[in-house]
């Protein structure tokens, strides 16, 4: 079993739909959870960051973490064609350190999302 | 926010030659940077952790002599692909974390094509 499982999709939705993206993980040491968006041939950009269990909202995006189930989600409301990209979940068991961090991120495979106008 | 600059964005080289990729943290210092490799429609694969002033830590299966990493300053790490072959063609991405930030910032990536 891989440490982080993510359905690669592809996922195609009409504009305005609510999108739900999910990841499961097996390492109970993970405490920091992130969602990245990656456009084709570009580096990933951080969308959401969550520590431990709970919800976090930022505009049209909501991230949820359920550590008891080892399950994280990203919801996109009122999806737009510009949201079309690959969404990667990532997690680590630490984040600290001065001048940077030496905690590795473990990524899911990424879900390719297309929002159709 | 934090900015990580990666150069070049695209490079084509002949088989057997070496290619250097630069990763710079523009507005912060990073004692640690990470180098990833990404195949088409695949996730990011961590290759190595670059440590300023010391040797890089390579992930299992990554050839140290092929992928040379130098982190000579707190804002610059370089990845040199030595004696490149077509199978080294890939998308290479670096990342770092600015102290105080929660997430990691990624460079824009370098697409390497070896012909």
Polypeptide structure, described:
The complex is a heterodimer of chains A (about 120) and B (about 120). Chain A has strands at about 5, 10-15, 20-25, 30-40, 45-50, 55-60, 60-65, 70-75, 85-90, 105, 110-115. Chain A has about 120 residues and is mostly beta strands. In chain A, the strands form two sheets. In chain A, strands 2, 4, 5, 9, 10 and 11 form a six-stranded mixed beta sheet that branches. In chain A, strands 1-3-8-7-6 form a five-stranded antiparallel beta sheet, with no helix packed on it. In chain A, a hairpin with a 2-residue loop joins β6 and β7. Chain B has about 120 residues and is mainly beta. In chain B, about 0% of the residues lie in helices and about 50% in strands. In chain B, the strands form two sheets. In chain B, strands 2, 4, 5, 6, 9, 10 and 11 form a seven-stranded mixed beta sheet that branches. Chain B has a four-stranded antiparallel beta sheet with strand order 1-3-8-7, with no helix packed on it. Chain B is globular, with a radius of gyration of 13 Å. The model of chain B has no long low-confidence stretch (mean pLDDT about 95). The chains are: A mainly beta (about 120), B mainly beta (about 120). Chains A and B meet through β4 and β5 of A and β4, β5, β9 and β10 of B.
Key words describing this protein structure:
heterodimer; A: mainly beta; six-stranded mixed β-sheet; five-stranded antiparallel β-sheet; 11 strands; B: mainly beta; seven-stranded mixed β-sheet; globular
């Amino acid at each position: 079993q891989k440490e982080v499982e993510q359905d690669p999709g592809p996922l195609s939705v009409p504009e305005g739909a609510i999108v739900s993206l999910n990841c499961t993980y097996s390492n109970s040491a993970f405490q920091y959870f992130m969602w990245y968006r990656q456009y084709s041939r570009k580096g990933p950009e951080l969308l959401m960051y969550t520590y431990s269990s709970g919800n976090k909202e930022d505009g049209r995006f909501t991230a949820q973490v359920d550590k008891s189930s080892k399950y994280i989600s990203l919801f996109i409301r009122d999806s737009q064609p510009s949201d079309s990209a690959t969404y990667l979940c990532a997690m680590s068991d630490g984040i600290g350190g001065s001048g940077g961090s030496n905690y590795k991120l473990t990524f899911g495979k990424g879900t390719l999302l297309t929002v159709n106008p | 926010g934090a900015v990580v600059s990666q150069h070049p964005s695209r490079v084509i080289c002949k088989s057997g030659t070496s290619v250097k990729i630069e990763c710079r943290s523009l507005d912060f210092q990073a004692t640690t940077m990470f180098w990833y490799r990404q195949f088409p429609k695949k996730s990011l694969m961590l290759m190595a952790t670059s440590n300023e002033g010391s040797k890089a830590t390579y992930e299992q299966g990554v050839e140290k002599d092929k992928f040379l990493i130098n982190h000579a300053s707190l804002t610059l790490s370089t990845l040199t692909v030595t004696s490149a072959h077509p199978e080294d063609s890939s998308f290479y991405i670096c990342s770092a974390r600015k102290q105080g930030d929660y997430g990691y910032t990624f460079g824009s990536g370098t697409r390497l094509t070896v012909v």
